[in-house]
Amino acid sequence: MGGSVSCCISPGESPKIHRREVELEECPITTCEDVSEDTGTYLQHISDRELPDELAQEANPSDHPRASTLFLNKSQTDVREKRKSNYMNHQMSPGLLTKKYSSCSTIFIDDSTVSQPNLKSTIKCVALAIYYHIKNRDSNRSLDIFDEKKHPLSREKVPDDYSVIDPEHKLIYRFIRTLFSSAQLTAECAIVTLVYLERLLTYAEMDICPCNWKRIVLGAILLASKVWDDQAVWNVDYCQILKDITVEDMNEMERHFLELLQFNINVPASVYAKYYFDLRSLADDNNLSFPLEPLSNKRAQKLEAISRLCEDKYKDLHKSAMRRSVSVDNLVGIRKSQAVLS
Predict the structure, then answer these.
(1) 10 Å Cβ neighbour count for 264?
(2) Taking a C-beta distance cutoff of 8 angstroms, is the pair 36, 1 a contact?
């Protein structure tokens, strides 16, 4: 997929999801309207993190491929309302009128794959996922380290209603696009960013809301770029993009982000693939179509070559697995024979 999917070894079971029994001064969980001073976080012992698989799958979509992603669930209410409105008004969705369809003579295909997603379309989908997270949030639980009033990203005065007005999809997209364009990050990094964001919301039992979305997104991008890209962007480089933020602030935010994730930055390939396809489903539901181009002879030959290469790799892996299985069976048989003879 263009880079190493995981960079560390994480616990076999998912971290335990429960409220930390610590004093408010040690780990404040507040609302956007009423925030308190953030002085630290609490880390559980590894033995306290273990949960049965059934509960872990239900609570941690960023850890388990079978658990439904949070952003797709939060978007369904709006999607159903749009479909109902179009049905009641006897209107056809605008996306259906502009969408290209394949025919007997022409096949339309986009240039986005799970291993090489389209950068612009992926960023738009990630921004839309964050938009639905904010719009359909359950409450306004937050932490001081992510509060933009206490830790502003610019010298401009933060509006008094900053914690009330939800950002539009275009605003979120422009913020993410600026960071990705300036830091030259990849589309895969955008998907990993969303994985870390949802993992933070689940582990820390907090919400992404108007007062904290920029710093949460920045922290997720910062971490994803270091985990995914071979040539990671340093914290000081982000200070060149966001002129008014300090390196000390970036370091502190990164440290808190990692502690809240309980240092679990592992992203299995199955989880990555799930988020990719759920983002495509989100795009289809909201008429954000990926750019389609007619399938040319050159492109068809390239796809066929890639398919053959993957098929050959699969056959080689299958043969290796069979040889290992036969070797183990022979070893077991030899040991049984030796035991009988002795």
Answers:
(1) 20
(2) no
Number of H helices, E strands in the chain: 11, 2
- The CB-side HSE value for 81 (13 A sphere, CA atoms) comes to 5
Q: Where are the alpha helices (DSSP H) in 93-212?
A: 94-98, 119-135, 169-183, 187-203
To the question of pTM greater than 0.85 for the whole model, the response is: no
Separation CA 249–CA 245 (nearest Å): 7
Report how far Cα 312 is from the mean position of its chain's Cα atoms: 31
> Which tokens belong to 107?
């096949």
Q: Are 166 and 60 in contact (CB under 8 A)?
A: no
- Distance from C-alpha of 151 to C-alpha of 145, rounded to nearest angstrom: 7
Distances (CA, A) of 113 to 14, 72, 271, 276, 289: 28, 19, 15, 9, 14
Query: Strand, coil or helix: what is 294?
Result: strand
d(CA 91, CA 97): 11
CB 95 within 8 Å of CB 289: yes
pLDDT in tens, 86-143: 656 665 555 555 566 666 767 767 667 788 888 999 999 999 999 999 999 999 999 9
Tokens of 301: 């030959």
Q: Compute the CA torsion angle 116, 120, 123, 129 (nearest 10 deg).
A: -100
Residue appearing with tokens 């030899």: 334
287, amino acid identity? N
pLDDT at 41 over 70: no
